[in-house]
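Structure tokens please, single chain.
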Amino acid sequence: MAAQSYNRWAIAVAGIILQVALGAVYAWSVFRTPLVKAFGWSIPEVTLAFTIAILTLGFAAFLGGLWMQKSGPRIVGMTGGILYGLGVFLASFSNHGLWVLYLTYGVIGGAGIGLAYIVPIATLVKWFPDKRGFITGLAVAGFGAGALVTAPVATRLIQRVGVLETFAILGIAYLVLVTVSSFFMVNPPAGYRPAGVAASQSVAQTARNFTLREALHTWQWYALWALLFLNVSAGISIISQAAPMTQEITGVDAATAAGMVGIISIGNGAGRLLWAWLSDFVGRRWVFLAMFLLQAVLFFIMPRVNHFGVFTALAFVILLCYGGGFGTMPAFTADYFGPRDVGSIYGLMLTAWGFGSALGPLLIAYIRETTGNYSEALYILSGIMLVSSAIPFIVRPPSEKREFRFADPNPRPSRS
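Here you go.
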């Protein structure tokens, strides 16, 4: 069907709805305490389910990016929605053992999230070549805001029907929302340029489109992977422990802490749009430098704060930066490697999300379990952010003439 038959902004809205449903995974912390109390599992054991989901997500996103090149975005997104909803629904049988929670919510649900997550990102960057940073930020803003809806809803459901029944209800809702939204995900025709947009406005910053193989033979791909990994490690540690951490440090009750989860999720969503939009003007790498330095200061301050409002404000800004990494990196990747294969190139880069989810949440949960408080883990995260700020200084776009590239033993020409 011709591009004129589609409204690119309508496709963007469908992508946002899809991402809101997927972003409900960020409300995991409201399930942590009910699961610990109901089944006697430890904090690290329960946290591992969230970690498995995010780790699986990263690899599934890569597979989804490859699959999209052959089958298009619609089938990939709908398959992801089915797996995501099914995984969360089947988590309602976790009373049969912790392994059930890991398999259903972690592996099946995480795979569904990953397959569906890459779909709107890779699709919209092609529909909006003139607004690359803004649209990728908008595309993932819904994901960051997903917990805003889910945290209070899940908390009330848990109080009324129990934690396992809540999984069943939410699983059905996620399946419907993601599969229906994915139906609207289609690619523009080859050579598409938005009406009224000059060719110069839709030319990528990179000199050409890289294949996945070619991108992996540049050092820049690994530098961008590291930026995403480090930013994820910091922010997701707060997400994974937000509710219990707030209760412990500020002394508020569970309902208030759940409300805080919703508040900081606004920061997660807003940061994806704000930092991505800003990166269109000041540059992607300077945005990452600002986010890393800001987080280094905030993580250092957090253990010293016991006022709920101030603590929430600090966590909110950290989540602004966390979301900013996801909002900015797809455009960063398309700038350096071109938009044509961004689904597979950025999809593989999302393994950084999975590995970051292993470092951040498990680190903070382990130290909390062994020391009885969160302070030491927060200081360590502050140091990680400070050291990480060196990377934006050295990363530059790939250039055949000026940049060192890892030798490709089987080079092949780029597809035009």
